[in-house]
Amino acid sequence: MKSKDGVEEAKVPLLEYSLSSFEGDDCELDLKTRVWIESKKLWHIVGPSIFSRITSYSMLVITQAFAGHLGDHELAAVSIASNVIVGLDFGLLLGMASALETLCGQAFGAKKCHMLGVYMQRSWIVLFLYCILILPLYLFTSPILKLLGQPPGVAELSGVLALWMLPLHFSFAFQFPLQRFLQSQLKMGVIAWVSLAALLVHVFVTWLFVYTLKLNVVGVAVTLNFSWWALVVGLLGYTVLGGCPLTWTGFPLKPFRICGSS
């Protein structure tokens, strides 16, 4: 069947669970069996999601651990830049990207699968523009921290590190919509595997920059750019190279339309 936009629509199963080992209606199963069945369904979704969040958090922990080997001053600067500046930025952009869950869920339920890709591209545009609006948070990190009472030396170094983390800042605009796009199709395993690959990249690059190239604290900050953009490249590669044939239809002009029907 084709929609009025000429895009092929098809039924896409959200999730299939094999219950062939159980016979009869669910109400005939005892409580223990029903809890076990529902737990398997739940962990099929939340397990990979928890794993991907742990790997993302581990990147920050590894970065701070390496910074701790360089000195207390460096550790303080990296901690402030990653936990305060990037942490605030992370929360703002993640909250905005979460709106995509509702849009993609509604489009999926309405069998308008092609709209998931359109909504995601619109989210990229909105979040990228928002990233530009909050650039002063990174550009004026040092004055802000001094105003909050941080020691001048730590504030200055944190400001330098924040500038080096600007690529990380813009990666959020693409990574969060990609994750919500795949989550709405229950492709949690893909997110988990890509997160694991990004974590391995982060460990290797951090070791290379700090101990081999001797880039010191700036090298520690730059490693986050590599790992988080590895997440973006991995998720985007899976999406555009055939992983989502019904929900990704390329780069149309439709995401740039402000008005008009979906």
Mean pLDDT equals 82
Oligomer: single chain
* Tally of alpha and pi helices: 10
Number of domains: 1
Main sheet attributes: strand count, strand direction, barrel closure: none
Backbone shape: globular
The chain-level structural class is mainly alpha
Helix percent reads over 70%
* Unreliable stretches covering 5 or more consecutive residues: 1-24
Question: How large is the share of residues in beta strands?
Answer: under 5%
What's the β-strand tally? 0
GO molecular function, one term: antiporter activity
Organism: Thlaspi arvense (Field penny-cress)
InterPro entries: MATE_fam (IPR002528)
Protein name: Protein DETOXIFICATION 27-like
Short description:
Helix content is 73%, strand content 0%.
Description:
By secondary structure, the chain is an all-alpha fold. The protein has one domain (28-256). The chain has 10 helices and no strands. α3 packs antiparallel against α4 (114-133). The model is unreliable at 1-24 (pLDDT under 50). InterPro entries: MATE_fam. One of its GO terms (molecular function) is antiporter activity. Pfam families: MatE.
Task: Map the helices and strands.
Layout: H1 31-68, H2 72-97, H3 99-109, H4 114-133, H5 136-139, H6 141-147, H7 152-164, H8 166-183, H9 188-212, H10 216-243
Helix pairs in contact: 1-2, 1-9, 1-10, 2-7, 2-8, 3-4, 4-8, 6-7, 7-10, 8-10, 9-10
Question: Which characteristics define this entry?
Answer:
single chain, transmembrane helix, 262 residues, mainly alpha, membrane, MATE_fam, globular
